[in-house]
Amino acid sequence: MKALHKIFGGINLTWLKVIILAVVTGVYTGLINQVPFLLDTSFRDIAISFEVWVFLGTFIIMNSKSNLDSALKCFVFFLISQPLVYLVEVPFAGWEIMSYYKNWILWTIMTFPMGFIGYYLKKDKWWGLFILTPVLILLTFHYGGFLGDTIFSFPKHLLSCIFCAVTMIIYILAIFSGKKTRITGLIICAALIGFVTLMTVWNPVVYDTVLMTCDAESEVYFDESYTVYLSDESFGTLNVDVNEGETKEDHFYMLHAVLKKSGKTDVIIESPGGEKTVYEIDIRRNDFDLVKK
User: How buried is 84 (Cβ within 10 angstroms: 0-12 exposed, 13-18 middle, 19+ buried)?
Assistant: First the structure.
């Protein structure tokens, strides 16, 4: 517990340390996001979601010396780190990658008032839970998303899922010292995590997509009279949908899939006469590869 209080309130966080932290995290995030074999794993989640940045923002707030000091340090940290992420990626992805920075501009501006208000957490009062609860809800949202991704393609995103749940509890224990406040905060965390866990397990995520279309130029023909299925039906279900165009020429058929987990299996397209066309599909959380066998 002493270590937590040291991290969240016991560090002399100078401006030089804030700038170094911003540069290091920005460069790290830009580089790790370009490692191909880490695609769709917890290690690259820092580039697309908030949980690690929430941790760093909370760290800055709790080690600041005043409301204004907290607001300015949070703002400068994100003002440096966020564009740096994309600048580091430019040699790998081209200058077009900088267009994504616009998604962070508003959030960077918001760090000033959030840092100012967040400093009141250092008062260690029960009403600090009202300041922290929106953060807990945001982390619960990420937790649910990562849990769904983990169930779909275990163990991918498991570390991010655990990180969200653990840091929620850490914030309660590190920021508040009052027994009643801590218990209330932990109850809030348990309720949020428990509810989202039950909802995610009860209604697991699926990858709803179109595997291929059938028109005059397609290499394989199928229509509503064909039977389509996966060789291992635990991966999901297939069906043929028709796209109703304005004219007959605009009509085409779609091989629609609702996929339940990642992995490899076969897509089988069977004609009314029993002739089969087989494709191997490699399913990922939001993507797939389809190769004719």
Answer: buried
Q: What is the pLDDT of residues 110-144, one digit of tens each?
A: 999 999 999 999 999 999 999 999 999 999 999 99
Q: Label the pairing between strands 263-270 and 276-283.
A: antiparallel
Contact by Cβ (8 Å): 282, 234: no
Task: Give the Cα-Cα-Cα angle 231, 258, 266 (nearest 5 degrees).
Answer: 20
Q: Which helix (H) or strand (E) holds 104?
A: helix 102-118
Task: Tokens for 176, please give them.
Answer: 């508040």
Measured distance CA(244)–CA(111) in Å, rounded: 48
The phi-psi region of residue 47 (left if phi > 0; otherwise alpha if psi is between -120 and 50; otherwise beta) is alpha
List, for residues 245-284, the tens digit of each pLDDT value: 555 566 788 999 999 999 999 999 999 999 999 999 999 9
Backbone φ, ψ for residue 204 (5° rounding): -65, 155
Q: Which residue has 């170094």 as its token pair?
A: 20
158: Cβ contacts below 8 Å, ≥ 6 apart: 42, 146, 150
CA distance 197 to 140: 10
d(CA 252, CA 38) in angstroms, rounded, equals: 37
